[in-house]
């Protein structure tokens, strides 16, 4: 669309060049799983707007809640109590079952806060390391990015700290293949400095590798035995994406800290860390908060989201649509096996791994041209096409997307 390219060029002129990486669809309106641009084009959205609009775009319940709050002049600051904040915190405790919820604004901020909590708790036990995993993504603020495992993003970060260490990700089936996930942890513990916490994504957003249940159970056991906290970064996996409320339920573990963002509020600025009383006991007034934490608009959206999860069958839809999506991806993979080497994913976070990054890029572009919005290729070699449709997507829309994808692959490779 030439008009979209002109808009993109204008944005590029005025923003640092690092900001926009996706296809130049100009978003003017979105509804359910569809995106509309101002020039009459429609896309089926298999990104959920960077995995945030889990309930679908333009959710009526979220929209109504936001309009109601926006129609009242409300002070937007954490330091002032609101009825909405009190109600949401009660609801979180009742529905999600944690003693404490720290309200924040972005996923990175939630990870940042979890790291601070882990380091403060570790300090009293002489432990100072945050152990995360190769190719992890935890956000773009300094602490969150330092914990990330994508080397290209770390080159400019201070390299002399021993706080952040990465070990191999315990991907699905890795234990069956002989991988021992706790061996590197024990080594780090013995080297001195001690492990304050292990930070893990239930599935890696940047590689689509899903964590191995047995491996993660061993890591959890190791953490308990060595007084280390287990932090789950559920910014992407949480709020239904895996077919459970949280990805850690799928893994059958009980983390000490849970970082939430993205789907928590269906696309409005809001994030949260869930934890026990015990781990935040050692914090003084003002050490964990910020101006927009628990802002009324984010809270209104988050309350509508939590209500939707408790009052509807979203998770059942994820399970059914996931089976349909994965079956379709396996069929495409089998048909084009000289070009596709793997199908990855869990719930409604799935993808195809291509052998050649050029083919992957062309398939992504072709899909977009034929009306299926997907992410630009991800992964170390940029060979992964990732699909994260809204959790409310219909069977027909999954079938339509698979058809478009099949057409894109066959046009590119034949
Ligand atoms: N953790 C994970 C697993 C994520 O996927 C993201 C965002 N892609 C973040 C943290 C950071 O969230 P935000 O962009 O809201 O800061």
Descriptive terms for the model:
single chain; 414 residues; alpha/beta; Aspartate Aminotransferase, domain 1; Aspartate Aminotransferase, domain 2; 2 domains; 7-stranded mixed β-sheet; 4-stranded mixed β-sheet; 14 helices; 40% helix; 15% strand; binds 4'-deoxy-4'-aminopyridoxal-5'-phosphate
Bound molecules: 4'-deoxy-4'-aminopyridoxal-5'-phosphate
Compute the number of helices: 14
What is the total number of structural domains? 2
Task: Give the termini separation.
Answer: 25 Å
Looking at how many chains there are and whether they match, the oligomeric state comes to single chain
Per DSSP E runs of 2 or more residues, the count of β-strands stands at 14
CATH topology group of the largest domain = Aspartate Aminotransferase, domain 2
Gyration radius, to the nearest Å?
A: 21 Å
CATH architecture of the largest domain: 3-Layer(aba) Sandwich
- Tell me, briefly, the overall form: globular
Keywords: Amino-acid biosynthesis, Aminotransferase, Arginine biosynthesis, Pyridoxal phosphate, Transferase
EC number: 2.6.1.46
Family: Belongs to the class-III pyridoxal-phosphate-dependent aminotransferase family.
Protein name: Diaminobutyrate--pyruvate aminotransferase protein
